Every structure is written in structure tokens, then in C-alpha cells.
Amino acid sequence: MSHQRSVSAAGGGAREKTYFEQQREVLIGEIAMSFEQVLANINKLNRSLEAVIAVGNEFSSVEALWSQFENVMAKEEDGDGKGSSAQAAAGAGPSGNTVDEADDDDGGARARGS
User: Where is the composition biased (Low complexity) (predicted)?
Assistant: First the structure.
């Protein structure tokens, strides 16, 4: 019986395809088109990622400059001893008190409700 199938398949090139074979070919074609779309979308994603990386690389010199500035400012702060730049940034007055404490002439009595 298997011999008859192989003979009929080999010699029957003009034989009509079954419904299953037709549907299989249709589905295989759809799958092939879907794979092509996936490949095209992956290529588009790859190009977008490369563009994002290129933009990020453009900022590397700016980042290096800001890092250098930060290091210089940190060394300057350590060299001052008292860290007067840190006090100024925190809002401290010349006496070392914060601005709120320096303005409070009665020693904070208003804040305590006395």
C-alpha cells in the first residue's frame, strides 16, 4: 500500500490537492508574511535603539564636564575647613545660625508661644 502511495505521489503531479493541503499552504504563507513583518519591526527597533544610544553618547562630554565640576567643588569645600559654602547653601547666616534663628530676637519665644 505504501508503494502505491509513493507511485501515485511521484507520478501524480497533476493530482488535485486536498482541502488540508490547501489550508496548510495558506497558513504557511501567512506565517511567512508574519515572520517578514516581525523581521522588519525588529530592524526598525534596532535602528531606534541605535539612535537612542547615539544621542546618549553625545552627552558623554557634558557628563564628564559636570563630573569634573562636581569634583572641583567637593575639593574646594573640603579645603575651606568649616565648609562655609555648605553653610551658605543650607541658608546659614554669618554667625552660623540659620536665617530663621538669626531673625528671632527673643530667642524663639514666639515659636514656643510665650
Answer: 83-96
Distance CA 101, CA 94 (A): 12
Rounded to two decimals, the pTM is: 0.44
Contact 87, 96 (CB under 8 A): yes
Q: Which cell is 70 given?
A: 562636581
| Phi, psi at 92, each rounded to 5° | -85, 145
Main-chain phi, psi angles of 18, to 5 degrees: -75, 165
Amino acid in position 26: V
Q: What is the C-alpha to C-alpha distance for residues 32 and 44, in angstroms, rounded to an integer?
A: 18
Interval 6-52: pLDDT, tens: 445 555 557 899 999 999 999 999 999 999 999 999 999 999 999 99
Q: What's the rounded Cα separation, in Å, for the pair 58 and 49?
A: 14
